[in-house]
Specification:
The structure holds two protein chains of two kinds.
Chain A: H1 6-18, H2 20-23, E1 40-41, E2 49-50, H3 51-55, E3 60-66, H4 71-87, E4 92-98, H5 105-115, E5 121-123, H6 128-133, E6 141-145, E7 150-154, H7 170-179
Parallel strand pairs in A: 3-4, 4-5
Antiparallel strand pairs in A: 1-2, 3-6, 6-7
Chain B: H1 7-19, H2 28-31, E1 50-65, E2 71-73, E3 79-92, E4 97-111, E5 119-125, E6 128-137, E7 147-156, E8 180-191, E9 194-205, E10 211-212, E11 216-226, E12 232-242, E13 246-247, E14 250-251, E15 257-269, E16 274-282, E17 290-291, E18 293-307
Antiparallel strand pairs in B: 1-2, 1-3, 1-18, 3-4, 4-5, 4-6, 6-7, 7-8, 8-9, 9-11, 10-13, 11-12, 12-15, 13-14, 15-16, 15-17, 16-18
The chains are: A alpha/beta, B mainly beta.
């Protein structure tokens, strides 16, 4: 979109003010405990994958929102791999989700390979899953149980891009609590990643 | 010594620093964590809720522009050094809205030949600025629409105006002696590690000492590049101009001003909570890049502590 005149720009500002949902990052449509809607995600395989159906394949499923250029996410990849390695044996499945407007299956497959991910990056066209779970930032993670209920949402941990040893491991703590039969000690945590370019 | 007032820059500077007509520094792709400012610092990054900081300025007047816009050297035996220490804080009051407050302390050292007046140093608190910023769209949130922010601010004449100054060479002048209301529109967009910013600022002032300063318009264009370690470099050019002041409805001769400033800044995020900024600025001593203003060159250094 090209802004051709001051009046057009002002009209855009007014439009944004009138509709913060469309111009600002989306609000949270799903609360913890509610069921994640059926959203089709494109992956490396030929057939699209239903996010809700994916959740039924494991005790808990983790969706981490991805942006290929986000330094904050890159900084967390080692920690994310460690969480995956720790919880995969306990029937927890991990997926990256690319909800950005320029997402493509081919590019994300290359990214997953280059980054050495042990989990795929799934393309969320139209950012439907992101909007459904309130994901506005890369590193934002949600944990969904086998029934498709949202049990945790927030950052991987309390760090942004300078990692500290005393960071609060939000995602890891939530998985530990859920697998031990407790509610997460923190079920809503702040995510400190880059803004997702969803439109 | 007759010299154009250097408070033209100060009047604008407070709003620039606080209101954040700034280059978010961490712009790697979609503004990782929405960038601290590589040019002007007191803008909350994407996830920050509060910050405090200080910015130190040291400038040397290297010449002036006359009313016709000709670049002039300083007269022999004269000099001016300008110093400023700003204390500022910003707080998020809405998800996309923030407010800020800046308190400047200004010192001036002017020197003229001994027979004319000698060397004098003075200063004090400057004009305090309060501002607000609302980002309708953040830079990089949309592939097609740039970040759009509206800004508003007020500068309170807490400083000493040139007319109130009592020390020789008016070295204790630290303000413009009028209330100033500022409004601005800022557009910015990210392109990979690059960020481009265009900002327009309009300032209107209340009457002072029987005259009314003309509205001041500032246009600022800037570009920033973020390095893989999240440090950032930024280059900006600003052009500020105002028409003639009026007194009793009549235009005051030779009172219009304009000034072009080029700034180069660098930001280094020490941790997620602490960041340092340094910068160089220059009013290029080239004719027609200013009028009725001193031309200066200087340094800035900023320390910021933030909370997310």
């Amino acid at each position: 979109m090209v802004v051709k005149s001051p009046s057009m720009l002002l009209a855009l500002v007014v439009a944004c003010a009138a509709s913060s949902v469309s111009c600002a990052a989306s609000g949270v449509a799903t609360r913890n405990g509610s069921v994640v809607p059926s959203v089709m995600l494109a992956g490396p395989g030929a057939a699209p994958l239903d996010a809700r159906a994916l959740a039924g394949d494991a005790a808990y499923t983790v969706f981490v929102f991805f942006s290929p250029d986000c330094h904050c996410l890159e900084q967390h990849e080692t920690r994310l791999r460690a969480v995956d390695a720790a919880f995969r044996p306990r029937d927890v499945h991990f997926f990256m989700v690319d909800s950005e407007v320029r997402a493509s299956v081919e590019r994300d497959a290359d990214e997953a390979r280059r980054r050495g991910y042990s989990f795929p990056i799934l393309v969320d066209r139209g950012a439907r899953l992101a909007d459904a779970v309130g994901a506005d930032y890369a590193t934002y993670s949600v944990v969904v149980d086998r029934e498709g209920r949202l049990r945790f949402r927030g950052g991987i941990d309390s760090d942004r891009d300078h990692l500290r040893s005393d960071a609060i491991p939000y995602l890891s703590d939530a998985l530990t609590d859920l697998l031990d039969g407790r509610e997460p000690r923190i079920a809503d945590a702040k995510a400190l990643g880059c803004a997702l370019q969803k439109w | 010594m007759s010299r154009p007032s250097s408070k033209f820059r100060s009047a604008l500077g407070a709003f620039l620093v606080l209101a954040g007509t700034t280059i978010p520094a961490r712009v790697r792709a979609q503004a990782c964590c929405a960038g601290g400012s590589a040019i002007t610092p007191a803008r909350l990054e994407l996830h920050e809720d509060f910050l405090v900081g200080t910015e130190l300025h040291a400038g040397d007047v290297i010449g002036s522009y006359d009313v016709g816009g000709n670049s002039l050297r300083l007269p022999a035996g004269t000099s001016e050094l300008d110093f400023e220490e700003d204390l500022f804080a910003a707080a998020r009051v809405l998800r996309r809205g923030q407010v800020a407050l800046l308190v400047p302390f200004i010192e001036t050292r002017r020197s003229v030949p001994p027979l004319v007046g000698g060397t004098h140093l003075g200063g004090g608190i400057g004009d305090i600025n309060a501002s607000a910023r609302y980002d309708f769209v953040g830079a990089g949130e949309s592939l097609y629409v740039p970040g759009i922010a509206l800004l508003a601010g007020v500068t309170v004449p807490t400083g000493t105006s040139p007319e109130q100054a009592t020390q020789p060479l008016a070295v204790d002048a630290t303000g413009i002696g009028a209330w100033q209301i500022n409004g601005a529109l800022a557009l910015e967009q990210t392109f990979g590690p690059w960020l481009l910013n265009a900002t327009g600022i309009l300032a209107v002032r209340t009457p002072r000492y029987g005259e009314l300063l003309a509205p001041q318009l500032t246009l600022l264009a800037a570009g920033a590049y973020t390095l893989p370690n999240d440090a950032a470099l930024a280059l900006s050019v600003s052009y500020a101009f105002e028409g003639s002041a009026t007194s009793n409805g009549a235009s005051v001769a030779d009172s219009a001003k304009r000034l072009t400033t080029v700034s180069l800044s660098a930001l280094y995020p020490v941790t997620d909570a602490w960041r340092l900024l340094g910068g160089l600025y220059l009013d290029p001593p080239l004719s027609q890049l200013g009028s009725n203003q001193p031309a200066a060159a200087g340094l800035t250094f900023t320390v910021i502590r933030s909370w997310s």
